[in-house]
Amino acid sequence: MSNTSNQEYKREIEVTGHLIDSMILTRIFDRIMDLKGEFEVIEFTIGKEKSDKSYAKLWVKANTPEHLREILEEVYNAGATPIEITSANLSKAPKDMVLPAEFYSTTNNLTHVLLDGEWIQVEDQMMDKAIVVDIKRRLATCKPIRAIRAADEVVVGDSGIRVSLPERPREGMNVFQFMSSYTSTEKPVQAIAKKIAEDVFGIKKRKGKLAVVAGPAIVHTGATEALAYLIRSGYVSVLLAGNALLVHDIEYSLFGTSLGVDVQSGSSKYQGHRHHMVAVNELFKAGSVEGLVKSNALRSGILYECVMSGIPYVLAGSIRDDGPAPGVITDVVEAQQKYKEALKGLDLVIMLSTMLHSIAVGNMLPSRVKVVAVDINPSTLTKLLDRGTGQAVGVVSDVGSFLPLVVKDLKDLESNDIA
Amino acid sequence: MSNTSNQEYKREIEVTGHLIDSMILTRIFDRIMDLKGEFEVIEFTIGKEKSDKSYAKLWVKANTPEHLREILEEVYNAGATPIEITSANLSKAPKDMVLPAEFYSTTNNLTHVLLDGEWIQVEDQMMDKAIVVDIKRRLATCKPIRAIRAADEVVVGDSGIRVSLPERPREGMNVFQFMSSYTSTEKPVQAIAKKIAEDVFGIKKRKGKLAVVAGPAIVHTGATEALAYLIRSGYVSVLLAGNALLVHDIEYSLFGTSLGVDVQSGSSKYQGHRHHMVAVNELFKAGSVEGLVKSNALRSGILYECVMSGIPYVLAGSIRDDGPAPGVITDVVEAQQKYKEALKGLDLVIMLSTMLHSIAVGNMLPSRVKVVAVDINPSTLTKLLDRGTGQAVGVVSDVGSFLPLVVKDLKDLESNDIA
Amino acid sequence: MSNTSNQEYKREIEVTGHLIDSMILTRIFDRIMDLKGEFEVIEFTIGKEKSDKSYAKLWVKANTPEHLREILEEVYNAGATPIEITSANLSKAPKDMVLPAEFYSTTNNLTHVLLDGEWIQVEDQMMDKAIVVDIKRRLATCKPIRAIRAADEVVVGDSGIRVSLPERPREGMNVFQFMSSYTSTEKPVQAIAKKIAEDVFGIKKRKGKLAVVAGPAIVHTGATEALAYLIRSGYVSVLLAGNALLVHDIEYSLFGTSLGVDVQSGSSKYQGHRHHMVAVNELFKAGSVEGLVKSNALRSGILYECVMSGIPYVLAGSIRDDGPAPGVITDVVEAQQKYKEALKGLDLVIMLSTMLHSIAVGNMLPSRVKVVAVDINPSTLTKLLDRGTGQAVGVVSDVGSFLPLVVKDLKDLESNDIA
Amino acid sequence: MSNTSNQEYKREIEVTGHLIDSMILTRIFDRIMDLKGEFEVIEFTIGKEKSDKSYAKLWVKANTPEHLREILEEVYNAGATPIEITSANLSKAPKDMVLPAEFYSTTNNLTHVLLDGEWIQVEDQMMDKAIVVDIKRRLATCKPIRAIRAADEVVVGDSGIRVSLPERPREGMNVFQFMSSYTSTEKPVQAIAKKIAEDVFGIKKRKGKLAVVAGPAIVHTGATEALAYLIRSGYVSVLLAGNALLVHDIEYSLFGTSLGVDVQSGSSKYQGHRHHMVAVNELFKAGSVEGLVKSNALRSGILYECVMSGIPYVLAGSIRDDGPAPGVITDVVEAQQKYKEALKGLDLVIMLSTMLHSIAVGNMLPSRVKVVAVDINPSTLTKLLDRGTGQAVGVVSDVGSFLPLVVKDLKDLESNDIA
């Protein structure tokens, strides 16, 4: 790689933080080199002890103005900022649901925009969205393209944007320390279950918020009681799922079966496919899960516990659904909206055996929200990470044997806590 | 297993067809025994040669009337009919979207109902639906629960119903012969590709209909041109996909990238995540794929070929979607409806690397429609079979290397055909 | 498929058993048709009730003598026998480890050979072996090619051979009934664990024999105590494993780690890679596992329990081994021999998370020995079935959460049994 | 985490290299913190431009001498060295195959030991071995435990050891740049195939050495001709495989089948299981592959090309083998020895669809040798990385469609090269 042209296009940038420990500097160097740019380190002060922050100042050099622009966008997304800071550029959306050409596309990391000399934190941070600014109210908000309205002030280009990468957690002994965000079988599952139980227990203690994203395999594999326990005991702040979880849960509560298989004995109950459709029919008859509970027809299960404890749940429909049953949001744009609202202010999200809803939720989360995903299929976890939810830790296990382990450990923690 | 009670509850049933070859009788015996019933064979005439049908008459015996009813429903679903045939029982739907309690829940096999001495074939056969009868017009139709209207005449119980199981294909040498519906890696992929090419070629020749269900991995892995070729050359009658395929296809056509990775060179193009969102934005700006084609901005790719050849496509939204872009049906009930319409009269469905849409389509197909599913993840194929699409054959391969092989074989067939 | 030639080559065959229920007849018809032969059913008597056997007599027809020979070999392997029975043909092995050209290659099903009018059962039945006959002693034995000696009398061709397919189990409620030999995730794992516990408990009760084939993931995932319990409590008759299980087990017993990861806390113990090699070194120092036990250095774990209870174990080396440690058989031919001896007279084999040893054991087992295989990777189970161990049922779960469930159920059974 | 004790135990260390770009410093900080040690950076000079090396000097602090020792071992393995360097400590092996208690256990990274003031490079670097020093000849060599002889001088403790981590490759455009060592489906397989072809082509050009580790799926999936082409054209320096590849290759060459399935047509050839055993028998009859070639019975295939081109091959036996056939090394210790010899001086190893042999080879390779592994099962690739072969890049694809793509690209490169 030789750049024969004179490299005259350069900019001075700086970056602060746990540059080495959190690999921020590594990432910045990587991106410059991957894009065939050059850099020169002008100043570097390393934190002497591990709690001290480091500081680096460097020149980024490129072959053409275009090239420099390309490199800088990457470098800014990796956490650097230009020395000479200029305000964010804004441009009006030409019409509803259409962004100006050079719109800035967000990451899921904490972002600030510079407006008239003031750094304003972007709200509702999500990846692959645009930033809309309300200049008067000094507000910057992540918005999906469908929420863009004509004349919205949209951030364009990469000036006046500061992205802060999450620092790697160190202190404390939660599940995120002993597992990297690397997914593997052959892990000590009992130890992992224990760590998750500790995290869940701690979140309740300090009145934090936990969301559970749940797939129907929970019911198939016999983990219904475990999840019901978590809800009933106040560990879960919100449940996100789809039609399949709803219908399987109702089928199991009414008949003890999941798709016609008796979950306790494992034997195939005949008329099983009917059970599934009868569950759908009962929901239509009652009009809602709440109606089924009120009529005393539904007396246990995941949704039952949500209704009894007043825990909110959001059920998103998909083209694969039988029914979909009442209570399921059939419009995906509306479902996304409801999911997003439900995901505000969370500390932890536990994803259980559902690729569709897990990736959907992953897309909506800022990178600071911790994610644990449990699936028997490693590819679900790989895809979640590939799609940008890099903060997730993946546990390859079957939810039917794993979730009861977590609940057992939680009960031990509860007993010890009383004593 | 000893039934101490006197078995006084019995019914005489009969069944005709390739009872042994197609395992129909095996399945009937299985179900009776699994349900702990008894049977006695009264008459059995075996087809002497393989084209002759066999005939069996037997007593089915149970312990209680309930028990007998249970066994009979299973046995009828396996293809048997009672000797004494009584008309189908009908009951009115109590209100919109609610079925009468004892509704008959369908299989995906060819079904007839007996109305006033006449066997009427059920239309729009799908699994897990109800049968609604229009007595005057002598019509019986599979309906999903959401399409049920108050006072619809719904078939209840299991009288007057005849289910015909698909015979196993024997003659001809298509892909369904040399592969059982068993999914495995370690298959001769080049031979499989050739067989599929022959099937696809033959369907076009005899003016049959082929649907392709397509996931975005087609674009990621570099199979866009292969699928575009199939569409352009008139092999595909309809394309079923989701928002992700649309957006990836447009991104690839506009930028040569898929989620920012240059598909030809494999190198990461920076601003890639922007490409994805820019593709969405361009679609919103143009208003539709057709608009993008008309404006000359879109000049190649999968959707481009559909537009140019007038091949219908249906795009179903999901909660995971970015956008969703215009043209994507965001209401899943409406999307199901459009998919169902698109699936009428098909000979073959090829499913390429999408679990969500493949299972959705599988649920809508009568068992007589052949299905080939290609996915690098064996669990996608296993789930498809588990969910009732038992006629599918699964190919574990990556679509990016497999689909071009199919196209290469098709081109050879075309050359030979001209010569 | 029309055979224009005159079909003059035919033979009369017969078959007895649960022809329909066990799909024997289906398989015979299949194979004739797959090979493009013809058949005519001359006689068919169906068992009236499910305990009655059926009988069929048919003509098999082919185009050429070669063709007929081909079909007949398949049909005989599927359980049929010719009406006119001729003795088995024998031919001498030309030299050590070389078979006569037309040697009969065995299946893993119960096989008899006809010698001078007497049907002799083949001993040590395994698949893909030759049958050596000791005419004087009237013995027929399955032998691997390396055990063949010059002038051994080897069965050639397919005359005088009767293969008996296993009947499908019906009565009793073991794990083999509610699971077909079909592998799937999304099963009720707790129910499956319970069934396996019942089978294991029943085998000990009736003084049957259980072998466990064990991979190192047992130690990684924290199931060491569970397997140790099974051995200590007398449920296991023999343990088959490799070097990795041995070394991991010793490492865990000495340090509480598996490849340096603390199994209880899940945290990475530094010097972990050393632990692994120290375990190997300790074994070399002591000379054997028994030596380590005797010196009081080894006081718990899987191998410890084997030594203390006098349960035989066989450890087979592989090219992947660290060490291999003393006690591991480094010659694979010798290891195969030892495995085979250990596998005699078994009722059940439980395979836990090891593809290499599971497939090896599968190859050595007659089809009558039941097999349960547990692995988190469905492809291990698929390969086991593909390689001919069709009697296996596969459980997709991680052994670290699954095996403790089985042990918990066993303890419940023990308590109830005393009471 | 508060360390209440006074931290008096510390040592000054230093490290040089691309500390940030290659994440060396990140790793050192990580390990100190993971072990709950402290550090203080005394000096840090960053390379100004990307080709300049950086230098860091820091204090490592611990609570106890034990603690310090633990941290230092990790830190040294991560590439640091103490400022005050002391010679390596040596201790005599107490007897054959037994190491002194405190033996240093190696990594797979380039290692030097300090002997009398001179840094000596360790030969035959492999992970999890001991270093034996020949003081007179000034030689240090990695030795497996079985090769240790009584009185061998073995390096103990961690003094006088310097480990050099591999720098991340940057320049040039090989497959290792655009793929991280991260395994994923959904990659542009055609682009990956092209990159691999370029690497393979370049290695031959510059007279480098390529090893292929090959599993039998190559034959099953129809990639025999592709691999045969690579060998015949001089791209492959050595072939490492097992009995299964050998027997499948011979079966395919003799009969066109793989386990009885016709690879070209995909149809099941009956007597297939016989073909497999006949292949074994023919090998025994001829005595060797060379014998089969000489007798003109073997005229194509993978092993045929090896014999014709004089390319060395090593076949390692396993307990799963049928036969094993002559030519297969049945003792695993001997097979390891032969593999190791074959792996000397390599530039690239391509692993094709074999977990057993791939992991075995991975264990034997120094980290500087590049590895590409192709497997349809992502877990094979994950395990390879987990077992320490961190330099490998994984391609999830089926070898039957992937390898022919590589060969096609190679042929294009050859044509262009001539022109």
Largest interface: A-B, 57 and 57 residues
Query: Which structural category do the helix and sheet elements of chain A fall into?
Result: alpha/beta
User: How many discrete structural domains of chain A?
Assistant: 3
The stretches of 5 or more residues of chain A where confidence is low (pLDDT under 50) are 1-5, 170-174, 177-182
SS elements, strand count of chain A: 19
Strand order in the largest sheet of chain A: 5-10-8-9-7-6-11
What is the CATH class name of the largest domain in chain A?
Alpha Beta
Q: State the distance separating the first and last CA atoms of chain A.
A: 67 Å
Nutshell version of this structure?
The structure is a homotetramer of 419-residue chains. The first copy, chain A, has helices at residues 24-34, 65-77, 175-178, 189-205, 217-220, 224-232, 243-255, 272-286, 289-294, 302-309, 332-342, 355-364, 378-386, 399-418, and strands at 9-17, 38-45, 54-62, 81-82, 89-92, 110-115, 118-123, 130-134, 139-143, 153-156, 161-164, 210-214, 238-242, 257-258, 261-262, 313-316, 348-352, 370-375, 392-396.
Protein model, in words:
Four copies of one chain form a homotetramer. The first copy, chain A, has 419 residues and is an alpha/beta fold. Chain A has three domains: 1-83, LOR/SDH bifunctional enzyme, conserved domain (Alpha-Beta Plaits, 2-Layer Sandwich); 85-168, Beta Barrel (conserved putative lor/sdh protein from methanococcus maripaludis s2 fold), CATH 2.40.420; 175-418, putative lor/sdh protein like domains (Rossmann fold, 3-Layer(aba) Sandwich), CATH 3.40.50. In chain A, 36% of the residues lie in helices and 23% in strands. Chain A has 14 helices and 19 strands. The first copy, chain A, has a seven-stranded mixed β-sheet with strand order 5-10-8-9-7-6-11, with no helix packed on it. Chain A has a six-stranded parallel β-sheet with strand order 16-13-12-17-18-19, sandwiched between helices. In chain A, a hairpin with a 2-residue loop joins strand 14 (257-258) and strand 15 (261-262). The model of chain A is unreliable at 1-5, 170-174 and 177-182 (pLDDT under 50). At the A-B interface, helix 2, helix 8, helix 11 and helix 12 of A face helix 2, helix 8, helix 11 and helix 12 of B.
